[in-house]
Specification:
Number of strands: 14
Low-confidence stretches: none
Shape: globular
Mean pLDDT: 93
Largest sheet: 10 strands, mixed
Strand order of the largest sheet: 7-1-2-6-3-5-4-8-9-10
Helix content: 25-40%
Number of helices: 11
Distance between the termini: 45 Å
Strand content: 15-25%
Radius of gyration: 19 Å
Bound molecules: threonylcarbamoyladenylate, magnesium ion
Length: 311
């Protein structure tokens, strides 16, 4: 156990905020049992109070203590995917208070696999409420530098764990209703989940509120548009200053061009750093070459669609 992790746990116990790496993105953690600590977390995130946060645990037993009941499906998914990039929404127990659930009767539970997150959770021994360590509505951070850019001195400590391996936020499955519903796609795909627990529905208007479901959530400041590969050339010829995110080789008419991998997981890993870079290019518009419309690209397409939603 490093002294940094011990210090981080002390800060959490004292009601402070610690940014820490997870395998998905960096989180900004607070003691999930302390109303005061969570209130500060919301203030720093500039997050509206009715938006629930995900609560992080060292293992499934600790996590399920925060649920009224861990169904067979919940246990099966936990066995298969925890620790890992999956969040389960379950009906809450008395431990999950209104200030972490946004007043809803459900709670989001996650057991991350990143070794530093695991060490911190074990050392702290309680539950850590942790949204992504960015201000509300911004692109999630995947490096300690991103966290500092977004939060400055508002995090009492940033644990350094290198770039996040998955690069996009955890898959969220709602198990609180009669049938499981996918609220947010991620590295663990709908197909992965279905192979373990059977059919999963898509989100509907009556699904629980969640901020990842708001339009234009993972958003750069520069207006962004997704265009089909064949339409990219036409868009570039219009002569506006553009920053491009594409699979193909750079076009010499474009000053700022980021080439992305053709593998969906490798793309996801680079996505948020790329969006940040494109955003600082000082162009009038960001053009994103649309990835294939296939199941393995579902999570990346979801984030890109949100980034390209005009507010
Ligand atoms: O990968 C992740 O999940 C990262 C890392 C840090 O663990 N965390 C993360 O947290 O993405 P955040 O707060 O940025 O996004 C959490 C999402 C939001 O869309 C929130 O509304 C939803 O989870 N959520 C949390 N509790 C919920 C609940 N009880 N019902 C429905 N949605 C919930
Ligand atoms: Mg977030």
């Amino acid at each position: 156990m490093s002294s940094e992790v011990r210090r981080a746990a002390q800060i959490l116990r004292a009601g402070g905020l610690v940014a820490f790496p997870t395998e998905t993105v960096y989180g900004l953690g607070a003691d999930a049992s302390s109303e005061k600590a969570v209130a500060r977390l919301y203030a720093v995130k500039r997050r509206p109070p009715e938006h629930p946060v995900i609560v992080h645990f060292a293992d499934a037993d600790k996590a399920f203590a925060w649920a009224r009941e861990a169904s067979e499906q919940a246990r099966t998914l936990a066995n298969r995917f925890w620790p890992g990039p999956l969040t389960l929404i379950l009906r809450r127990s008395a431990l999950a208070r209104d200030f972490v659930t946004g007043g809803q009767d459900t709670v989001g539970l996650r057991v991350p696999s990143h070794p530093l997150a695991q060490q911190l959770l074990k050392e702290f021994s309680g539950a850590i409420a942790a949204p992504s360590a960015n201000r509300f509505g911004m692109v999630s951070p995947t490096t300690p530098a991103h966290v500092r850019e977004d939060l400055g001195k508002d995090a009492d400590l940033v644990l350094e764990g290198g770039p996040s391996e998955v690069g996009i936020e955890s898959t969220i499955v709602d198990l609180s209703g009669s049938t499981p519903v996918l609220l947010r796609p991620g590295r663990i795909s709908k197909q992965d989940l279905e192979s373990v627990i059977g059919p999963i529905g898509e989100r509907t208007a009556s699904s629980p509120r969640h901020s990842g479901g708001l339009e234009r959530h993972y958003a750069p400041r520069t207006p962004a548009r997704m265009v089909a590969a064949h339409a990219l050339d036409k868009e570039i010829s219009k002569g506006r200053s553009v920053a491009v995110l594409a699979f193909s080789r750079p076009d010499e008419r474009v000053d700022f061009w980021l080439r992305m991998p053709r593998d969906a997981q490798a793309y996801a890993q680079k996505l948020y750093a790329a969006l940040r870079e494109l955003d600082t290019a000082g162009c009038q518009q960001i053009l994103v070459e649309a990835p294939p419309d296939t199941a393995e690209w579902a999570a990346v397409r979801d984030r890109l669609k949100r980034a390209c939603e005009q507010g």
